Input
Amino acid sequence: MNSWRDSLPFAGEPSSEFRERLARQQAAAHERRQQALTEQASTLNTPQARIRIWEQLHAIVLPRDTAHRLIGVIAAHTGLTVAQVREEQQQRAAGPPAAPAVVSGIQEVPG
Output
């Protein structure tokens, strides 16, 4: 990820090279954003992934309130239904799924 220092000229860097470097950085950032916008509405991604991409693009977490006005916006931007966005809200509210119990195949030998 670029830091704010990358947008400053290097010592002795000619102005034309600095402008070209900035233009390349801006073009790369624009391309990453366009890719993320495509991915947030891609049916190849799960609803959960599409919502997470939306959250990253907008630096906002999915509201907890099922009546929040952003729910419709998120649904429109991700190509999901409002019901699918609410389902993700419910899954997050329930917490992470419990890990399945691992059954050991080792039997204790009486001694």
